[in-house]
Request: fold
Amino acid sequence: MITTLKFFNELKEKIPFLDIKKKILDVKIELPESQIKTLKDLFISWSKNLPEKYIKGLIVDVLKKPNSENGKVYEALVYAWLDRHDIRYLPQFHIDQNNCFKASKQGYDADGKIEENGLIFDVKQFGLTLPHIETLRRKLQEELPEEFYLTISGGKNISVQDIKTHFLEKTKDIAQCIMDEKSKLHTDYLYRDRKFGLEFRANSKENRLIFTSISEFDLFEWAENNQFYFMYHASQFCINSPYILFCPYDEQLASLFSTEDRERSFWAFRALCRRIFMNLTKMDERGITDFDRKAQNGISVATAAKKISAIVFLDVTEEFDYQNCRMFVFQNPNADCKIPRYQIDSLFRNAGATIEDFRFDNY
Reply:
């Protein structure tokens, strides 16, 4: 087991100037060994090439919550991928208000800029409904008596927003419905939400060691329900620069995509991107302030969707070689700032990525 202090002290042996004033709590790092090594290699690399403020800030952000719930962990793993493939970038690159949809005059700091071609990128920890369903299960478990173990079955095609609004914000009410006398089923309790197709079962632990649940996943329904997912960050989209969204995931965050064969993952991601690139780019009647309260007024979903040049899904469970690369790159054929094919090839295809440009499927 490696803890945050042990990790930090090992880094200090390699990085002499590493002196962080903020107190680091000594907790277990709940990440795979391969990712811990990747993070350590990244910080050492940054110490040789970047100003101190970047490395110190990211170390603090990662170590304050060293598990799969921390988006900064996945941001760092994307930086590490860029490092390993010799792609030069500047982290935390400032974007002025006139080059994004932020209502604030201060603009914002994008996660990075690729130096060679000026591509701006942000990192969005990816998993959509999958990690949220597990978060819901964990929160509901805390509300139940100790002698019961909760399982959630049913469809995983629900949107992130519905999970948050109808379930995560109402855990106490749902727990009461589960443990209601009307839900009693022999020694267990069973509650069904018919609107969203989820089934909650409080399994009695008495004389039982194994608990099972059955779920279904329809990639096309999932894509339709989650097509607005990135619009909740639309204020960050760049107006005058090519803009990429990196979406890292792993076995802990989205095991469905990480453990499935690459072809099934590809088709799921493709269905989602096609919705965004072909459907949302025609949606002039809805504004992005419906989703992102930090955005300027008067910007349509269609206008914002056209600012996404590409979306990159990256499995960061471990460091995959060329033959087993689990990276999927989708170019927006309707983007205002398209990325030339040779740049996509140089950045991603040469690393083994699967690339889709929708060249003959843009309708």
Remarks:
- The longest strand covers residues 148-155.
- The chain is about 35% helix and 20% strand.
- The radius of gyration is 22 Å.
- The CA atoms of residues 262 and 338 lie 26 Å apart.
